[in-house]
Write a structure and sequence with these properties.
single chain; about 280 residues; alpha/beta; 434 Repressor (Amino-terminal Domain); Endonuclease, Chain A; 2 domains; 6-stranded mixed β-sheet; 12 helices; 6 strands; about 10% strand
Length: about 280
């Protein structure tokens, strides 16, 4: 059987395929044997290894399970997301890999509703505005919508993560996508607040200088109790796993929760904002 040699530097697809082949051969498996472990055909595995077929999220997650890379920083899922989502900020695909396995998620957002809580129409309104401004292409916009849907789906599991969200009041006051889209988005927030594994709070405008964060912040607690932080600048995102650096951020988040409105008061504010839309 002819073996196609790949240059991993030639394309992201080639790098992904070369890595699959390398780990397969290190394990002493033939393509058909790996295919059986992954739940795919040998032809499919061959096409991925040679860069002729784009890997999927399912293929990447199965590869992480088969090769034991799922708990590492360099997962196949992260590589897949970087391959598919070239328009995402540096560091974000890596963060999403951690997010999908987190036991507890803490979010703070300013200006827009956090992605995990967005409705599809709200998300589309945001990306369509980016397309209109020329910041991304229509193809990148479609990828972002599907990427967020996959990200949300990864958190739907028998034991979902505890999710604590603090949103700046601007998130519910800034109308995105028109009255009907925004009304449906606020309804989505109200339903989120009813879930047994969630807490939703609003940081009102009058908190002023009591806010410990001026920019969005994502904080994760993993199953092994390690902590992960993710923050973005305008140009790039950064994942931090050094406990000595993440713990002060967790302390600041606790302060933010203490100063923000209670969930009951936050729900009341969202209902009031909802009445003013339609």
């Amino acid at each position: 059987m002819n073996r196609k040699e790949l240059d991993p530097e030639s394309s992201p697809e080639a790098a992904f395929g070369a890595r699959v082949r390398k780990l397969r051969e290190e394990n002493g498996w033939k393509q058909e044997e790996l295919a059986g472990r992954l739940g795919y055909s040998g032809t499919h595995v061959s096409a991925v290894e040679t860069g002729r077929k784009m890997p999927t999220l399912r293929f990447s997650r199965n590869a992480d399970q088969v090769f034991g890379t799922g708990e590492t920083a360099d997962t196949f899922e992260r590589q897949f997301r970087e391959l598919r989502q070239g328009s995402l900020l540096e560091g974000f695909p890596q963060y999403v890999g951690y997010e999908g396995r987190a036991a507890e998620i803490r979010l703070y957002q300013v200006g827009i509703v956090p992605g995990l809580l967005q409705t599809p129409k709200y998300t589309r309104a945001l990306v369509e505005a980016d397309v209109w401004r020329g910041a991304i292409t229509p193809e990148q916009a479609a990828d972002r919508v599907s990427f967020l849907a996959e990200r949300q789906a990864a958190l739907v599991r028998p034991r979902p993560p505890t999710t604590l969200v603090v949103m700046d009041e601007s998130c519910i006051r800034r109308q995105v996508g028109g009255p009907e889209v925004m009304a449906a988005q606020l309804d989505r927030l109200l339903k989120f607040a009813e879930l047994p594994s969630t807490v939703l709070q609003i940081a009102p405008f009058d908190m002023a200088g009591h806010r410990p964060f001026n920019l969005p912040m994502n904080l994760l607690t993993m199953l092994d109790l390690s902590a992960v932080a993710y923050a973005e600048s305008q140009m790039r995102g950064h994942v931090e796993r050094d406990t000595t650096l993440v713990l002060p951020l967790l302390a600041a988040y606790h302060q933010l929760q203490a100063e923000a409105l209670s969930q009951a008061a936050s729900v009341a504010m969202i209902i009031e904002a909802r009445k003013g839309i339609l």
